[in-house]
Amino acid sequence: MKKIFSPKLTLILVVTVICLFLVWPTFKYFAFIATMGSDDLTQEQIDRRNELLEHDRVITLGLDLQGGADFLLAVDIERLAQRALENDTESLRSSLQREGIDASLRPVAESQTELYVGVKILDTANAEVAAAVITSLLGGTSVNLDPPPGNLAASLRSGDEARFYLRRAQLNQVTEDAMEAALGVVRRRVDEFGLTQPIVTRADADRIRVQIPGETNPEQIRNNLLRTAFLEFRLLHPNHDSLIGDFIEGGSGGILRDVGTGIIKDEFLVEVESPTAPGRMIKRLADDIPNVPAGYVLRLGRKTTVDPTTGNVIESETIDNLVYLVEARAELTGDSLRRASAFTDIQDFENPIKVSIEFDNRGAITFGRLTEDNVGHRFAILLDDVVYSAPNIREPIRGGRASISGGFTQAEARDLSTVLKAGALPAPLRVIEENLVGASLGADSIRDSGKALMIGGFLIICLMVTIYVTCGVISIIAMALNLLLILAILSLMGATLTLSGIGGILLTMGFAVDANILIYERLREELDSGKPLRAAINAAFGRAFSVIFDANLTSLMPALVLVLFEVVDGSVRGFWTALAIGLIANLYTGIVVTRVLIETYYQQVRSLNVGKIRLLKGVKINWMGYRKVGIVVSGSLVIVVAGYLSIWGPSFGIDFTGGVLSTVEVEATESADQQRLVTLFSEDFTDVRVIKVVNKDQWQITLPQEANPVTGVVPDLEEIQETLRARLATFERPTQVLSSQSVDPLVGREFKFVAILSIIVACGVILTYIAFRFQWIFGAGAILALTHDVVLALGVFKLLGHSLTLDIVSGLLIILGYSVNDTIVVFDRIREKMQERLSANVSDVINMGINETLSRTVLTSGSTFLVISVMYFFGGAGLSDFALILMLGIIFGTYSSIFVASALVCTYLQKTGRTTVIAAKKATTRVAVKKKKAPTQV
Questions:
Q1: What is the pLDDT of residue 573?
Q2: If we measure between CA atoms, which residue out of 895, 600, 723, 757 comes closest to residue 8?
């Protein structure tokens, strides 16, 4: 018996040991998690868990597996621009006032390209001085001044308005500074709440992603993340009581003594869209209100009263739209705040719950001087431009301590103190995408995905061992090492395992056996030709390398496109990460590991059992004899389905249109519940979609963000969520919302563009690669086959009533990779036969290529379809639609490799007069040369 441990086998064992070493921390982490139970965690358990996460690179669970909240927040760029304009306005006003020049200034923010301060001087005799002041503020440049400096004085002298434009570079810098500040504030706020394993990252130029695993009260977190918490202290006008009468209902007689002001006249209010809740209309002050004294502005406030016995706000005593005349510039802001805390003042029966604040040294000095210089005057305390209180300054307040009262409940005061401690946001944030997953659904997902992995793995083991016997066992070992290598790389990356990531691993198991099937089928052919076993092994691996390399590379191309266009930032990121790593690992395990194990086994026993079960051996079907029928049928179907989709359009999901998608569990559900649920929401929505989750008492309900059919008002995402809960509460049986995803229409429009572009680019990349590796006609045939597969899959998906989402677009890209994978296997064999049988008829050669790879096609497609079926039936709500589109793609992709791609190539060669392979010899010779060079180039 020869020695077993050859250098190659030793290297494989070393790699395996390294992988085990990398995976071991993950195993320890999950072993510890399994012992923690579902009760509240002790501090010791929390410390141990954090220690495992901090000191080792481990694969953690994603939100869809353990529950939690995922928010995509966008910074309000318009508000940033408005504040920048306000700062420029005040700077310009101050500069002109120092020169004794009276001027009318108006900030204008019509769009992000029309941002300017309009300037008119009241005394045209000061035109030259005013022009010099304005020009000096530009820093010597004239790119943002209309008219230019040379004509400015003359324009001001004639009474025209000069426009002081906000520079684009200035706005970009303001945006960048605000994003960095907002990122820090959000991180501090998340830390203040003591959340577990939070992730706060910058997602784009003006966006922040916040992921909070295991969070059970996402609404509270969302509200506190969005709160600007911009604290200001502004003095009221000395003659506030007499001047405010011009702006309140009832004139000076409308002043409410307990708050020292009144309710603003409705004529000074306008309806605008809420900056944090698109679609919701709110009332705010008009931009141009006459008779407001220079240097002062109006600000709204409200008075609330809390019931001391219940702690709840007394709505009947709440007064909205109180108005205050305050200084335009704040005397002190929350930037100097050191700490804040909620407390109860037992001596104040009306507003007992308050927030205590303490300034740092600089703020304390400023606050002391402010109160000392203004004893007997009133100052307003504003939060996010809303006046909470406006007390009289009875005496100087030194030490930097004060309190805020405003009818808070205990929870509101506690939350306010938390966000104040974390700092104010430089601009408002709004949620443009939200994904909430309940802990129970996360536990179900873990159980379902684990079941899918075990069943899928077991079926593949049975299939491979039954058909290939000893070689089947070797392929299972290689597949196990493939899985270990994937987990090791994910551990090294410190990756997060999501439900889609498990789907990627599951699909990789199907792809992993594909390389082995290609090798084993080729080995059988070499043995049938009479070659000795050793020579057959060498020939099988040598000839299989090219097609395995091409197949895996083309399957990777859609993943590269997704990364390039950042489509993978969504829920399917984990899938593509796992699949990409798995495809790369396939080249190692499918070629290197499998060959070394087979050679080692052969050296020890001098035999190798490849199995006796032969599928479709020796078939001689005249496929190309039916090519015209196939082309006509396929072409007709594509035209009909494309026409159907162009008229009715795909049923776009909320990823593209905006809205809310919820997974709802209905107790003892039945098929009639689908129509009942649709009827339940039809009063509020015209396009309600309800889909049953396979093997579950669960339904996926899609509510688009559209105008209410009765009122015509477009609800915001939060209102849709409220409507969902309210309607479900009236359902005839108990229901529970397990998960909920909200997407803003703005994000949906961006996703739609990226999805279309990614598919087009993926097709272009695949076409270029196949044309390079074969001939252009082969590439064209492959692309037409891919178009056929995608269009038909989309059509059937639409007929079944399912929605097109980003996950489905990702599935379509997988179909592109999988379909071209199968097509390349067929094309590779056709190319080989063209070189062997130079005098054969083209259609005969193509028939031989298809027939000889038919068993591989059936086995590979069958095994992959088997794995995807397991994903569909046992993968739960998160994977069912995704698996369905893949199943359709496998069916259409297998068909199109023969009756579309190969048929079109055959038809073209015959139409151009190349009825024999001799006529095409020059073209195939060029391909053969490239085939040899390809591995070196890659």
A1: 63
A2: 600
